[in-house]
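About this split. The held-out portion is used to measure sequence recovery: a designer receives only the structure tokens and must propose an amino acid at every position. Recovery is the fraction of positions where the proposal matches the reference. Here is one held-out target exactly as it appears in the evaluation file.
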């Protein structure tokens, strides 16, 4: 009976994760559609900040980082709990997603430290 409880808990957790991913995808698509519909080209550089260039630069950097991380990812087989995982594609994708998420978290932490330091208030651009 204990095994059945663990199995049911795993099933519930999997379905909750599926629901969380679905909600995140719906929110991302809704946000993209809203920003696409309500964009204004006349204020693309409000306060002399080139918003479009910054947004496209972030998108390009993220895509390039994901591609490089997936291509450079390790593909040697793994044995986890006695099960061998040998599919090169999924091993590379998994390693790439983990590596790119670590790089993005490090970059975000650097920007938080920069923002908290007050250096951007002292330097005149």
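Reference sequence for scoring:
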């Amino acid at each position: 009976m204990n095994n059945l409880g663990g199995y049911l808990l795993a099933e519930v957790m999997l379905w909750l994760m599926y629901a969380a991913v679905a909600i995140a995808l719906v929110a991302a698509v809704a946000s993209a559609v809203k920003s696409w519909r309500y964009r204004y080209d006349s204020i693309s550089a409000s306060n002399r900040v080139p918003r479009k260039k910054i947004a496209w630069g972030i998108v390009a950097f993220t895509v390039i980082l994901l591609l490089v991380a997936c291509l450079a990812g390790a593909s040697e087989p793994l044995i986890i709990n006695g099960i061998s995982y040998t599919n090169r594609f999924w091993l590379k994708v998994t390693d790439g997603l983990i590596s790119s998420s670590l790089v993005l978290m490090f970059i975000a932490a650097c920007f938080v430290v920069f923002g908290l330091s007050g250096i951007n208030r002292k330097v005149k651009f």
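Annotator remark: Strands lie at 78-80, 83-85.
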